[in-house]
Amino acid sequence: MTDITNQSLSEIIDNIKTKRISSTDLTKAYIKNIESAKKLNAFVTTTFDQALDKAKQFDAKPNFDQLLPGIPLAVKDLFCTENTKTTAGSNILNNFIPTYESTVTKNLWDSGSFLLGKLNCDEFAMGSSNETSYFGNVINPVKDQLVPGGSSGGSSSALAADLTPATIGTDTGGSIRQPASFTGTVGLKPTYGLCSRWGIVAFASSLDQAGPMTKTIKDCSIMLEAMSGFDKKDSTSINKKKEQYSKNLKNNIKGLKIGIPKEYRVDNMPKEIDELWKKGKKILKDLGAQLIDISLPHTKYALPTYYIVAPAEASSNLARYDGVRYGYRSKKGKDLIEMYENTRSEGFGDEVKRRILIGTYVLSSGYYDAYYLKAQKVRNLIKKDFDDNFLKVDAILTPSTPSSAFKIGEKTNDPVSMYLNDIFTVPVNLAGLPALSLPAGLDKQGLPLGLQLIGKALDEQKILNIGYAFEKNCAFKNKIKKWW
Amino acid sequence: MSLDKEKIKHVAKLARISVNEAKVDSLTKDLNSIFKFIEQLNELNTDKVEPLTSILNQSLRSRKDEINDGKIREKILKNSPKESEEFFVVPKVVE
Is the ipTM of this structure higher than 0.85? Predict the structure, then answer.
């Protein structure tokens, strides 16, 4: 058999079901890949022994009716995993071993899969390049010295390098879609509330959402089906019937109306991004979709709004790291207050501290109205832009990112230039909508570029269908050759 | 508006993060550039706009106020940096 790890998740599932490969051999193949890919630094923790045990258990008593039969999966280290260290990429959680399992990972294991390891990410998911992790930079398998995107950079790198057949990330302002775009893979941020947030290390609770990262759209639909669902432990979880995204996947998109927002053509955007967008429009048009020019007038205010709302919620969420109940505790300090201050100063990295300070400031007495309240008003305007347009269109097509993957260190000295990376992905989080990043082409340096499909709330099936049709007609091929 | 060093030290105190004196200058520069970017929002008149309170257009569910777990003291204490006799231990608070 040719290398099984090159295949898509759905092909691997077929091979397991038809007994062409056992779960044990599959798991061994991934372990071999992971062991020879240390240079990418995609993993914080590996759980090989545990994975091999689970694989053997599956092979002894296989259940082929499950969605993910005998499939080993590595996940972002932001999901709490029972008895396996969960760090969120931070020194402050470097010794944290959860005594419980996140709902999303539990759903995956209940579907027949098991844990292969925990993937590196930006500290507390704050970053767009995986350069803020306490555990070091992750490298993009596309090319040495390139960032894999962030914050789910370990996830995108591991997936693209065949170190896991599929994975999951979290997306607060683009943390699934931007790394997917940088590595030529598929990433979906679901509707806010579709996947439970219970047991995920919190960043900005009104924006955070877990989602799949995969090689194909079909894989994406399988993973979404497995991980989503109502959870009474998350107060914002949507109570609705579970969808069968993979079974209902179809590629007929004739007559669908696709909105093209003029505000997503930004100043200084590389010509290649514009050409990619044109290519995407042509593919959808040729498939019988109708293109409609639309306007989302408040788009330019999305990023400034995000940089008030997200740090404000983060400063509140991260108040829990006090060195008392779990996590790192500084040995310095003569009293309780000094212990808190030193613990947080030594435990958090620079970007996390920056955002806590921004958040503390915008929520502090006398400034709340000018910043936080103002931002929540603008957020309403951004949401209304989408609501108004979704009366006219079925989905919206935009570029995923304003550039391809950049070099390590290129943007670390200027936080605002780093933030601008998320200019096309952030509006969707503010409005709670689902959005898919699809690999769509390569730039002249051979680096992958992605296009984004935004859907109505809970309309994941439609954007997956459009993506499915697009994928069949785009003929994107990732040209990753193992160099590491 | 611009943030000066004193203001930043005050906010750091509120956030319970000790800031190294050597880093205050670069932090001041970074935060000011971020706030300059954020303050683009002031161009917009939002006097008649309601703030967003829920993106789901639904109110939070209520549930019965009852115990649904419990007896997990050991689990809760398992990750504590310091504990004694089933309690978290912190540095001395009162003399």
Answer: yes
